[in-house]
Amino acid sequence: MDIAPITVDASATSVRNDRERARYAALGAFALVAGIWIVWLAAFALGWNMDALGLRPRDPHALLGILTAPFVHASFEHLMSNTLPLGLLSAFALYAYPRAMRYALPWIWIVSGFGVWLWARPSLHVGISGVVHGLMFFLFLIGLFRRDRLGVSIALAVFFLYGGMTLTILPREENVSFEYHLAGAIAGAIAALAFYRLDPLPPRKRYSWEDEEDDVVHAEHPHDAFDRSQFEPQRPQDVPVLWDGPPPRDVGGDNVVAFPSRRGGNGPTLH
Description:
The protein has 271 residues and is mainly alpha-helical. It has a domain at 12-195: Rhomboid-like (Rhomboid-like fold, Up-down Bundle), CATH 1.20.1540.10. The protein has seven helices and four strands; from the N terminus they run H-H-H-H-H-H-H-E-E-E-E. It has helices spanning 12-46, 65-68, 76-96, 98-119, 129-146, 149-162, 178-195; strands spanning 216-217, 226-227, 250-251, 254-255. It is elongated, with a radius of gyration of 33 Å.
């Protein structure tokens, strides 16, 4: 089932479609965040060791961590720091780009994990921050690629809220996996470039004056034609000059302006 498209007119149908899209985005974002929390709470309550689900670079036995590492968090603070941006960014993406999000989220999830497994430092990498960085870069760039009003608005809002993520793709803290952030950002940028055409552009509202002809609207009879040029201002070269100044003197047969002579004879001139 496809999501109802965005419409222009504020009719009952457009309001119903908008509510459907908002409900779909809210439920999808809630399900994603709830899944992360359920796994962490179950592991905490049952005393599971989640290190086995983490991602260890270049370890063939840890390839499963590409799928499971985003569910693992080192602490409650780590989980909390990822909850709000994950929910907000995923809701934005599901509302504005429901079709593209179906491909972008799995792509970011898998490609970011594979990038970490391929070239990251030999350590245990856990957390969903790589996916969060991918969603941020995805939303920012897809708005610039599409250039529609909704996409640009979301891109500006996302950059205003989480633009600092552009700095965390660089190594800053020893215990922070910047490799996961960088791999997620690259995956999100690729997803924006690859999937930005999947969702149709919202229609642009057209006003009545845009349907009128630019110069002349011809009626059925020539004498009924309406000439809009009568309301246009004149060109600068057609505007009469109101004052040209005093007429120049005729000195020596040439039209020149005679300057008054200096007192005391011909002195030097200054340039």
